[in-house]
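Input (structure):
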């Protein structure tokens, strides 16, 4: 079923560090949330093993590899899953045997 696009629905930007809605850009031009505005993407590797350089155009941020050329932002982030894994905090839950309801 066809649904007409409304203003502002064509592109939804998410923060590469936490996945929340991106409101602003950092120094590299990458859309990020307000918590990660000072943080930068560093040590990103391409699929071929070379380093990725973050570039910005009028259509948004993208990556450049010396061997592969230009890569979309999403493909570059898929090749580097460690960025989101480092940001997730591990929460330790202690459950005692006398607790009836635990979640």
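Output (sequence):
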């Amino acid at each position: 079923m066809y649904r007409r696009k409304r203003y502002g629905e064509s592109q939804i930007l998410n923060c590469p560090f936490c996945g929340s809605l991106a409101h602003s850009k950092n120094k590299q031009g990458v859309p990020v949330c307000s918590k990660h505005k000072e943080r930068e993407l560093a040590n990103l590797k391409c699929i071929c093993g070379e380093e990725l350089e973050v570039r910005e155009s009028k259509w948004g941020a993208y990556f450049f590899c010396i061997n592969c050329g230009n890569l979309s932002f999403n493909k570059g982030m898929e090749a580097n899953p460690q960025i989101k894994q480092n940001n997730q905090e591990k929460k330790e839950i202690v459950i005692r045997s006398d607790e009836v309801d635990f979640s």
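Notes: The chain has two helices and five strands. The CA atoms of residues 26 and 37 lie 5 Å apart.
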